[in-house]
Amino acid sequence: RLAGKFETQVCDIADQETDDYLARFVKLAKAPAGGVLVDLGCGIGTFIAKFGAPFGEIVGVEFAPRIIARAKQRCAGMKGVSWLTLDIPRAAAKIGRKSDFTVCLNVITQQSEVRRAALWASLAAVTKRGGHALVVIPSLEAERLIEKVSGGSDATIHAGGLVDRYGDLQKHFKRRELEEIFAANGFAVKRIGRARYSWTEEGVRETKARARNRPWDWMCLAQRL
């Protein structure tokens, strides 16, 4: 359903973030040249197209066939790329623990705590010891900022960090909560930053003053213990 309008309907942080934090965090991970990159929830392949070249093996995972077809087209000509059209837990079982660098960008947002736990476990399951995981996740703190600036957004914040926008419930995370989840799944957090994006993405006019404090997603780099 989203394949033809992915760019306008989905937050593709690899394309939309404004401070080039992704590039900094990728560099900080120091993944070995020729290593393995696994993108869990690769969408239309934006991250792989931007950062995949140094890796010897790349696995892109996406459950929607029409979306992964766009990713294949976008990354045509790249060497060492394979694609799995599966949900993430089944894909993780198939991949095994071999990833030097695992990315999961704005994927773990389901309202079900059980489904979210399965995704966190999958992230750990594919990342080898000493490897790194890069996760981007919606920020609850930023959602409260959006409410304040907009004078009441179209979203409603419920208990447990669930945010309702037009009937679509998505989990948003506090920074401390994110640190605790990584620790529970066998990771040590190395750095957390703010992947900022334009106010216009929230339907708010961006002024010079607002541009100094844009909304953000949490970006977290962690190492598998």
Report on the structure:
This protein is globular. A hairpin with a 2-residue loop joins β7 and β8. A seven-stranded mixed beta sheet has the order 3-2-1-4-5-10-9, sandwiched between helices. A three-stranded antiparallel beta sheet has the order 6-7-8, with helices on one face. The chain has helices spanning 6-9, 13-16, 21-29, 46-51, 65-74, 88-95, 113-126, 140-150, 175-184, 208-211; strands spanning 36-40, 57-61, 81-84, 99-105, 127-138, 155-157, 162-165, 168-171, 187-196, 216-224. It is an alpha/beta fold and 225 residues long. It contains ten helices and ten strands. α6 (88-95) runs parallel beside α7.
Q: How would you describe this structure in keywords?
A:
10 strands; 28% strand; alpha/beta; globular; 3-stranded antiparallel sheet
SSE-based structural type: alpha/beta
Strand runs, count = 10
Radius of gyration, whole Å: 17 Å
> Which sequence of SSEs, written as H and E, runs from N to C?
HHHEHEHEHEHEHEEEHEHE
N- to C-terminal distance? 38 Å
SS strand fraction: 25-35%
Instruction: Please give the order of strands in the largest beta sheet.
Output: 3-2-1-4-5-10-9
Largest sheet: 7 strands, mixed
Provide the low-confidence segments as ranges. Answer: none
Helix content: 25-40%
Structure, briefly:
This protein is of the alpha/beta class. The protein is built from ten helices and ten strands.
Indicate the topology.
Blueprint: H1 6-9, H2 13-16, H3 21-29, E1 36-40, H4 46-51, E2 57-61, H5 65-74, E3 81-84, H6 88-95, E4 99-105, H7 113-126, E5 127-138, H8 140-150, E6 155-157, E7 162-165, E8 168-171, H9 175-184, E9 187-196, H10 208-211, E10 216-224
Parallel strand pairs: 1-2, 1-4, 2-3, 4-5
Antiparallel strand pairs: 5-10, 6-7, 7-8, 9-10
Helix pairs in contact: 6-7
